[in-house]
Amino acid sequence: MREIKIKSPAKINLGLKVYRKREDGFHEVETILQMVDLYDTITLRRIEGDIIVVSCNNNSVPEDENNLVYRAAELIQRHIKVDKGLLIKIDKHIPVSAGLGGGSSNAAVTLLGLNRLWDLGLKKDKLIDLAKLLGSDVPFFIFGTRAIGRGRGEELQPLSSGERIPIVLVNPNLSLSTSWVYKNLNLRLTNKENSINLLTPLLERGEIKKIGRYIFNDLESSAIKRFPVIKDIKDKLWSLGAVCSMMSGSGSTVFGIFTDYNIAKEACHKLRIEEWSVFLTETIVDLQEIYPGEILRSMQ
Ligand code: ATP
Known about the structure:
The protein is α+β, with helices and mostly antiparallel strands. It folds into 2 domains: 3-160, Ribosomal Protein S5, domain 2, CATH 3.30.230; 166-282, Alpha-Beta Plaits. It is built from 11 helices and 10 strands. The chain has helices spanning 68-79, 102-117, 124-132, 140-143, 178-183, 196-204, 208-211, 220-226, 229-239, 261-271, 293-298; strands at 3-21, 27-47, 52-56, 85-91, 146-151, 155-158, 166-171, 244-247, 254-257, 277-282. The strands form 2 sheets. Strands 1, 2, 3, 4, 5 and 6 form a 6-stranded mixed sheet that branches. A 4-stranded antiparallel sheet has the order 8-9-7-10. A hairpin with a 6-residue loop joins β8 and β9. The protein binds adenosine-5'-triphosphate. Adenosine-5'-triphosphate binds at residues 61-62, 66-69, 90, 96-104, 106, 137, 178, 249-250.
């Protein structure tokens, strides 16, 4: 096999609780991660020599060793002692620095793809261990498709995926750096109750209308202080029929959850009048929807 092309999905956080700052500088979190069907495409191609070349159609994404896909490939080269060359092409559709995990997803997909392209025979648990070395959100994109993340977000517990849920994503074309949002977080003002415990059973039972009452993101208020437009988008989604709207991860993307696909579609039309990037998506319920069968079989 000379080349492999794989879809690389986005995620949203259906709840994000932030606890104390740990000694390693990271905050302890508890979150519900959910894959949605907005994709980048990653193409991995064998090339001569042992170098790694990255190319991306979005010029705000680095093409050097700062790209997470480069680090994923280098990790495999070093860890498994492979000296093969590789071209990684990223076709970006997921907004960058947007709380949608695009870079983490690209890195996870690179690990999965190389396992197949280079015939490494690595099993799922091993790939997840390697993913943890690349970043806290990376393991989730191998684990799928809805899970609770604890620790830095990398200790995963599976949740049943239930029915497909229509989700509208709105990005105001403003990048928020994750470290800025955490630095400006006032832990004294965060949600006292741990609503993850309340949200999980509602999601598992598919009681979407009720989740609006419990959904939360401890990072949202500091992000809104910096960019009030986040609040405007939340209100707009709500007025267009979303059962709830919330910022994803460290922002700046806001998602709206809908119970009806056509209402979500109509909301997208109306939101596109503004200068925002708007995406009509659905939750992903099975990894087989995204990753080719040969990729999934090769890690079993
Ligand atoms: P995080 O919470 O990890 O910051 P995010 O979803 O908010 O994730 P990403 O789109 O993953 O944001 O990008 C975060 C940063 O990572 C950006 O500054 C970007 O330059 C860098 N980056 C490195 N590799 C990639 C990649 N493959 N795709 C997108 N960004 C990347």
